[in-house]
Amino acid sequence: MTTHQLNVNGRNHSVDVDADTPLLWVLRDTLGLTGTKFGCGQGVCGACTVHLGGKAVKACQTSLQEAAGHAITTVEGLSKDGSHPVQKAWLAEDVAQCGYCQPGMIMSAAALLHHKPHPTDYDIDAAFADHVCRCGTYPRVRSAVKRAAGGAK
Ligand code: FES
Ligand code: FES
Asked: Whole-angstrom distance between the N-terminal and C-terminal Cα of the chain?
């Protein structure tokens, strides 16, 4: 086992975990950051979405080795006080139902708006195409993304 350096939410961590361990397990089990959720473990539900170097990635499909050396942001690190525009829009639109898929949705929304501040409906649909919400919050997700972008609801 080798020691790997991870930068998560602005903090550096040394972790002694096998290099091919999925980042999701390192975040949840090693670092105790349980905001990032395990859904499918196969890259098809989006519950585990985090930012790696500013891009939305699925932590269950990203190895520790791939993540080391890049800035990682989890839902816990999006803001200190819930003041990120996406978090505020999510509350305003009352998006969450059971909430399980929501950290991944929020992280994809934040990445989308970072790269496309004024996304079209097509952009939004594309960004969430591989997110699964069993509660069916998709219409509210779309409204919240638009609200966070400063556009119409
Ligand atoms: S848990 Fe990673 S995509 Fe479902
Ligand atoms: S809010 Fe329940 S799974 Fe999405």
From this structure: 50
